[in-house]
Amino acid sequence: MQVGPHGSQRTTRMDLWKGAAAARTLRLPLPKLEDVTQALLLVALTFYSRGHVGASSFLAPTATRRLSPATPSLVNSGCCRFAPHYQGVDWQDPKVREDFMANVLSVERRFFAAPDVAFDRDSGMTYDGTSLNLTTGGLQSDGLRVFSAASKEALHLSLLAIALQPPQDVDEERRELLPLVYSMDEALEILEKKVSSMEDFDRRFPACGGFLPWFCSRGISNGSCKGLNETFTFIEPKVDSASVLSVPALDNGQMAWAAVALVQVLQKRSSESSRISTLAQRWENRLKRMRATAVNLFYDGPGTGTVRAIATIKNASVDAANNSTNAYNAENYVLWDPFEGEMVVLFIDLMGNWSNYTDPQAEKDKIWNIKAQHVDPVLYNESNNTYVIQEGFWFSAHEQWKTLQLPYLQIPLVHHLFRNGEMARLTFSVVKNLNGLMASVNAPTGFHCDSASGAYCSALGIQSLAEQPILTDHVLTPYGAFPAILIEPAAGLAWYQHMLRMPRAQTALGSIESFLQNGTSVAAMVTWDAKVTSVVAMLGGTGDLVRARMETEGVMDTFVQRVESMYADVFQKPLAQTMKKGESMSARIAELPALPLPADQAMPSEPYHYAMCGCASP
């Protein structure tokens, strides 16, 4: 397939996203009805009875750890539908935000800190997520998705890195929240198991170069990923019917930068114990391995200026560090988007090994010259205000993932641009009277979306700000608020709370995947993408950690130059037209109006809320 500078690549990227979505959203049978008692028993048995790492420690702290003084008994009394208790609060008050986030984390950790629910007790590797009983909201007995990808690992590693930060390095508002994420022992034990699994996988599949394909988290038996009732062996590639081993660049770019953040934290604390010191060295070796192989795996070769979206492997036993031809671009998919795909481009540019190239700078410059052709401005007009926006693919919140992990928002021009994007996203929902925000997500039960099976909704966004057709605005998801939470926590958290008030949006494992605008249906599942993005945003992301490592490596200036010049060439002039003469970008940002809050309105109450998530009326 020949890839042109415009339309053909854009269509290819949409098809690629759809393919990835289909791979991670296998259509599961509708759940069998179970009564609440059975569901509660299943939750208890899954959480506490298995002989996994620290079984009793992962969830028990919820009952004893500090919640904020305003509502100390909400979560630890068994209440997980606490969102209505925050209706009408002052979101500008830091104590209100801290209180709300404390309750969010105390419930969300029932997912992200739960072995055999979010990650495997033996391998330490993530699962994609799990289905819930549509009627009770409890765990679905056969719904565990025992496969995963590097993007889920990116979120897990980011969360672990944040949890391990020294308290003095964290701002006051978030400092009190860190103990609600993982304890030191929890985090270190997970990281030890995870790095052992990745070291073992790298030994058996050196052609992947320390990166990961879609994988089965417990191993494979009879061609399928092993379940919890089968003996763990080691993680294995989740290959297609043709048994082709392939490594997705986008997901692995996310994971690589998460490893950068993690190594930064572990090395800073390595003097505290031999355990941390040893773990820091092992993860540093993982990072070195990815740095040594990223160019060979993902760059299309001399003079191309393109980064392959999927590296297809010829021979799994050939070491990627020593061979640049064992990986190839089978479908001619490339990543030149200015969204999540940019993360692997930055990793290759700033951290990769270009020693096999006679003019590495020329190769890197060509990558960015090509990328710049695919950054486009669009105007959003509302209430006599005009906002300059970066055009989205679908303008899904998912496309802002890079701001979650890298220090983009520390660049004033980029901060201004992305803040404008969230102004448009939130204003659109206010004007359209939507009960939430949009992002690519699994479809609510009974709703057919744009993927081949209809089970995944990729094309969720704002049509006037999107290049591709938007097929519906009926599907909303709590994680659509994560970019706003990063940029302006008061507004972002207000929208997140607003969505949690929808019918069945709060479960015993935290926020639901998605729901329909009218509240009549939900996607009865919980996944890393649609939950932990919001949690990482509430904790400030990993931009500061990555910046510290970039400064140590001497590449922070290059990062700023690459990103700023790409955006300045396109947006400097239209942004300047909205500014006062002589006004600096930082001054302009300070004068921008606050992001809009959701309307204080009654939410749909039918069909019902989950009884096992009940709380006293506020």
Brief digest:
The chain has helices at residues 7-24, 36-48, 55-59, 94-112, 150-163, 172-175, 184-204, 249-268, 274-298, 342-351, 360-372, 401-405, 412-431, 482-487, 489-500, 529-538, 543-553, 556-576, 585-591; strands at 129-132, 139-145, 147-148, 215-216, 220-221, 224-225, 236-237, 246-248, 310-313, 327-328, 377-382, 385-390, 441-442, 456-457, 475-476, 506-507, 510-511, 515-516, 525-527. By secondary structure, the protein is mainly alpha-helical.
Q: How much helical structure, as a percent, in the residues?
A: 40-55%
How much beta, percentage-wise? 5-15%
* Largest pleated sheet: 3 strands, antiparallel
Evaluate the radius of gyration.
23 Å
**Poorly predicted parts:** 1-73
Strand arrangement in the largest pleated sheet: 2-1-19
What is the residue-mean pLDDT, rounded to a whole number?
86
**What structural class do the secondary elements suggest?**
mainly alpha
The dominant shape is: globular
Span between termini: 59 Å
Number of helices: 19
Number of strands: 19
InterPro entries: SGL_GH162 (IPR058773)
Organism: Durusdinium trenchii
Domain Endo-beta-1,2-glucanase SGL: 125-575
Protein name: Endo-beta-1,2-glucanase SGL domain-containing protein
Description:
It comes from Durusdinium trenchii. It holds the Pfam family SGL_GH162. Residues 125-575 form the Endo-beta-1,2-glucanase SGL domain. This is Endo-beta-1,2-glucanase SGL domain-containing protein. The chain has 618 residues and is mainly alpha-helical. The chain is 41% helix and 9% strand. The strands form 8 sheets. A 3-stranded antiparallel sheet has the order 2-1-19. Strands 3-4-7 form a 3-stranded antiparallel sheet. Strand 5 (220-221) and strand 6 (224-225) form a beta hairpin. The longest helix is centred in the middle third of the chain and has 25 residues, at 274-298.
